[in-house]
Structures are given as C-alpha cells and as structure tokens.
Amino acid sequence: MEKTKLxxxxxxxxxxxxxxxxxxxxxxxxxxYDLTLFFRFYIAIQNDLDSSDITKIDISTITIQEIxxxxxxxxxxxxxxxxxxxxxxxxxxxxxxxxxxxxxxxLKGKRRLIEENPADELxxxxxxxxxxxxxxxxxxxxxxxxxxxxxxxxxNYCMMMFFLNLGIRVTELCQINRSSIQGRYxxxxxxxxxxxxxxxxxxxxxxxADYENSGKTTYKGEGEEPLFVSxxxxxxxxxxxxxxxxxxxxxxxxxxxxxxxxKLRHTSATMMYKSGADIRSLQHIxxxxxxxxxxxxxxxxxxxLQHVLENNPFNIVRAR
Length: 320
Fold this sequence. Notes:
Pfam families: Phage_integrase. This is Tyrosine recombinase XerC. Residues 4-108 form the Core-binding (CB) domain. The model has no long low-confidence stretch (mean pLDDT 89). The protein has 2 domains: 8-110, DNA polymerase, domain 1 (Orthogonal Bundle), CATH 1.10.150; 137-305, hpI Integrase, Chain A (Orthogonal Bundle), CATH 1.10.443. It is 51% helix and 4% strand. The chain has helices spanning 8-19, 25-46, 64-68, 72-84, 90-110, 137-145, 153-166, 170-175, 202-212, 238-251, 261-274, 279-286, 291-294, 301-310, and strands at 181-182, 185-189, 195-199. Helix 4 (72-84) packs antiparallel against helix 5, helix 7 packs antiparallel against helix 9 and helix 7 (153-166) packs across helix 11. By secondary structure, it is mostly helical. Strands 1-2-3 form a 3-stranded antiparallel sheet.
C-alpha cells in the first residue's frame, strides 16, 4: 500500500509531538490518521467531491494559506461527518477534537503561522464515564492459578504479578529493563516519558527471583537488556503480552469477557483502593497526570455504601 504523502507543516507538527512533547509513536500515528482524514475531508468539501470515499485524495498540496482559511464551521462539518457517515463514537470524536486543537495551537502558538485559531471554540463531545471492568479477588486467584507449568511459566507469572500488584500499563511492562530495578524499587517510564518509582512487594520479589532462576531465554537484540524476554530472545510487544493474558484467561477456565492487560491494571487499582489506598497515592502508583482519572476507581464503593445506608438502624418505614 502506497504511503500517504503529508504536507510539510503536518510532518513538522508530528515531529514536534514526539521530540518536544514526548508523545509516543502510537499517539503520533493516531494524530497523523486524524489530521489526514480531516485534510481529505476539507479538500472533498471545497471541491464538491464525494466524501463517502476520500481515501484517494492527495493532501500533500495543502498550503498554509488554505489552513488560514479554515473556520470553526469547517471543523463542525468534519465532526458531523465523523459521527454521521463514519459512525464515530463520542470518545473517537473527542480524540479528533484533541488532535485538531493541538495542531492549530501549534500553528498559532509555536510557529506563528496563523492569527486566528479556529479550534479555540471547538467543544469536546460529552463522554459518559465508563466504569472500569475488573476481576474480583476470587477471579484473579483463578486467573493466576491457570498459568500452565512450562518453561515460560515463571516469566508469565512474574509479568502477571507485576500487572496485578503494581497496576502498570502494558507498554510500561514491555519497556522495563534489567537496570530499571534497583533493590526493591522499579523505575517505570510512563506516558510522555515521565518516570515514576514503584515499590516491589514480597509477591513481586519472589516472582522475580523465581523468573531469574528459571534459565530464561537470552536476549538477542541490541541496546539495554529488557527484563522480560520473549522465547525468540526479543523485547515483548503489547500484542504478544495481550495474547499471553488471553491464553491464561482461557486455560484457567475463567474466560472473563475481553480480559486484556489493561483490565489487569484496573483490577490492581480497584483492589488497592478497596484495601484503603488513598486517591493521591493511587494516582502516583498508576502514573495518572490528573487525579480525575484516578477517581474512576471510587465507583466500586457505590454498592457497598448503598448496603451500609440500607442497614442504617433508622432505615425504618413508618406508617403515618
């Protein structure tokens, strides 16, 4: 498939995202996709082209002069197209709004290439806050017990212990190097290349020792040696770890619907909160930039609080 040629200003913006803003290459690809779609839509509208198939539209000729002529109405039309013709959910459209806001802010604030920012007044679609899906302690125990004994089981067990005890992201797990661990402390590189230090409890230390003593696969790549090495001798990818989680889910007989590494992170956070972790501590452990993100875990108390209130001795219906 031929690679889409991008306008220079867009290439500059994408470089800025990774080198200056510290965004991941995955985030950069998402921004590239969103902007490519937007430019194709804009060209289609300006030239009365059929927007039902815009994948062949060349965006490499977009100029800064054309960008200066873009209006808030153009952005609204694009969001309507994403919702009505592409069937984008509120969260998918919210990401596109974030992309457009970031791009036009860069053009005005960093490059001084536009005087008016059309995305200033662009609202983000309201997204219903989803409750995190997680395992309870019995399900988590069944999941862990389902790791089949083989050469890879000490490694897989250690990875699952790190997920369930530390609440780390799958990308963070893949990036852990041997040098990331000093004594009982692990340095995790999170979103935006932000580092945080987490404590390794007894469960993690025991799992790590068993993995280290298991005759694990030798690393065959270049650069720093990863802690977790695949059977091919390479650093793990998110997709490979997801397959391992899926396999354990099936072999354990748990077969929890759509169980992913991210659900293990939710499980860890939920269990820590239920065990008394305060929100600020949890925010640091999970590496959330905003405490509002961490507060999604407070939902777990709702049913318990309801039970307490129903059992209040004054909960008496009296005839009047």
